[in-house]
Amino acid sequence: MKSSLVLMAAGLGSRFGGTKQLVPVGKNGETLLDFTIQDALRVGMTDVVIIVRSEIVNDMKSHVERLHPEGLDFRFVLQDRYGPARAKPWGTTHAVISASEAVEGPFILANADDYYGPSSIEVASEQLPNLDEQSAALITFELNKTLSSSGPVTRGVCDVQNGLLAEVIETEGLFYNESNNEIACVEGNILKPDTPVSMNLWCFHPSILSSLQSLWEEFLEENSHSETAECLLPVCISTLMDRQDFQVSTVPSQEEWTGLTNPDDLELVRNKINNLRS
To answer: Domains along the chain?
Structure first.
């Protein structure tokens, strides 16, 4: 079965203050998603699905065509054309199922505004042949390699039991305290530097799409009139683990993550990319 790289690039970039998916960070005008595409190409993946919103799709197409060689199969999905219209996107589960018709086989799911590193994409691609209707995989990162010097961050802290994901706990206000060399969160809890966290780098069998579709329909029935509620992927995966014999293997990456959240991140990311990709 043909495998795909699916990139979520429809976010509004509210905290960043603009379309961060298209902000150049590399020497040749590359954005963060370009490096993920390059890494996927290196491991033999040639099918790329990019989930965008209508107002940026033409700019995204022009950018991708300029920076990437012929031979890659790019498909663009408009998340805002799927389901009820709303100013704020409906969340990561909604993003994934909006791409259902463009995905034919197992796929890697990633954020467009995160840099995962070559070995992370390679190990993710290695998981795809092993997946079936009852399994998925999550590439995890060490917490200390995902912090930002521009301020506190929110991370999906993973509870891992015997190599399997038990729960993703959304944890806010994580920061490195230089005075005592500890990582703390807004609630005051202390976390170990090597605590595994999710940065939304998932590996899925295509059957996940029908399962997520059902959960989206349940969510929409309860939240159809909300302007802010989001159908989030970690919550839906947790529901599948509770309701079915569904398992998520966790595979640790040794890469150093970087990404764009706030405007102050931009120069930091550019410097880090320059060091990592030079």
So the answer is: 4-277 (3.90.550.10)
